[in-house]
Amino acid sequence: MADPYVTLGVARGATEAEIKKAYRTLAKELHPDRNTDNPKAAERFSQVTQAYDLLTDKDKRARFDRGEIDGDGNPSAPFGYGQRGPGGGFAGRGPGGGSFDFGGEKVDVNDLFSDLFGSGGRSAGGGFGFGRRPQPKGANIAYRLAIPFADAATLKTQRITLADGKTIDLKLPPGLEDGTQMRLSGKGQVGPGGTGDGIVTLAIEPHRFFTRTGDDIRLDLPVSLAEAVLGASVRVPTVDGPVMLTIPKGSSSGKTLRLKGKGFTRKDGKRGDQFVTLMVDLPVDDDALVEFVQGWPGKNGGNPRGNLGV
Predict the structure, then answer these.
(1) What is the pTM of this model?
(2) What is the pLDDT of residue 141?
(3) Read out DSSP for the chain?
(4) Which end of the chain, N or C, is less packed with Cβ atoms under 10 Å?
(5) Is 265 within a domain?
(6) Each residue's pLDDT tens digit in the chain (310 positions)?
(7) CATH number at residue 190
(8) The CATH number of the domain where 249 resides is what?
(9) Three-class HEC string of 79-122
(10) Do the domain assignments include residue 130?
(11) What's the structural domain count of the chain?
């Protein structure tokens, strides 16, 4: 794969925000759903996504910058083959095809392997009997799939469009986290040694009123003054749909109630919980309420901030 910085069109010292901005622009332009008649766009989309995944992984990016891995995340040039180090290094094959220069000293590679493996390591024709080198598989294709918050919690099956334009239904795994990767065997590029795989990175979308804490879900629920004072049974949203929740009489803002089994699916298949925090919503400019509180005998009783030491 090409240099991921070049693929995304960013400088080597680009910030994470600059990398994300470049990726979003290219992904929107090249997404297979918008280029059904252009297979090259789908291939380019895969390259852009793979470059983005490498550069947003701090460890992989550092290793790439040091030259330890290539743009596919594979080790680069093992043992410095074909390069010369500061002291002469490993210069490669000599004029006769059998000697190498190690730090200025030429070594006959046939003698070297003979010492290591014995004369049986050479074939009758003078070569080495290690068998034919395995043919490489095709490259993996990287995908990024956005999962709605509720679908991620309940593991709802998702549909994904592959680089070849085909769609498949993807079953989400228990214990799903933002950034979880799934491998689609044989859904990569075709190569002489077989077909590569598809690597899908799952991104959980934020929700407009739910938040996640571990395997649990949290929700701030507005309630009226009457519901808080007198108690009530109210409808509450969950990732599985609305349910009825009983609000105890005399509830204050900040009181938290639990809905068991309404959170994210854990690795063992069980569900976390949903915690509902009550937020008393007072009416604005309600003259009757103001008049009531002004005439309420207990309006000056007690100090609700006493536990805070004030």
Answers:
(1) 0.56
(2) 93
(3) ---HHHHHT--TT--HHHHHHHHHHHHHHH-GGG-TT-HHHHHHHHHHHHHHHHHTSHHHHHHHHTTSB-TTSPBPSGGGTT---TTS-B----TTSSEEEETTEEEEHHHHHHHHH-GGGB-TTSSB-S-PPPPPPPPPEEEEEEE-HHHHHHT--EEEE-TTS-EEEEPPPTT--TT-EEEETT-S-EETTEE--EEEEEEEPP-SS-EEETTEEEEEEEEEHHHHHH-EEEEE--TT--EEEEEPTTPPTT-EEEETT-SPBPTTS-B--EEEEEEEEPPSS-HHHHHHHHT-TTTT-S-TTGGGT-
(4) C
(5) yes
(6) 579 999 999 998 999 999 999 998 898 888 877 787 787 888 888 888 888 988 999 989 999 888 888 888 888 755 444 444 444 444 444 444 444 444 444 445 445 444 444 444 444 444 444 456 677 888 999 999 999 999 999 999 999 999 888 999 999 999 999 999 999 999 988 888 888 999 999 999 999 999 999 999 999 999 999 999 999 999 999 999 999 999 999 999 999 999 999 999 999 999 999 999 999 999 888 888 888 888 887 666 677 777 788 7
(7) 1.10.287.110
(8) 2.60.260.20
(9) HHCCCCCCCCCECCCCCCCCEEEECCEEEEHHHHHHHHHCHHHE
(10) no
(11) 2
Do both 41 and 61 map to the same domain? yes
Whether 150 and 235 share a structural domain? no
172 and 191 co-located in one domain: yes
Domain-ending residue, one of 179, 204, 229: 204
Cβ-contact 14, 5 below 8 angstroms:
yes
Domain extent for 254? 211-284
- Same domain for 182 and 58: yes
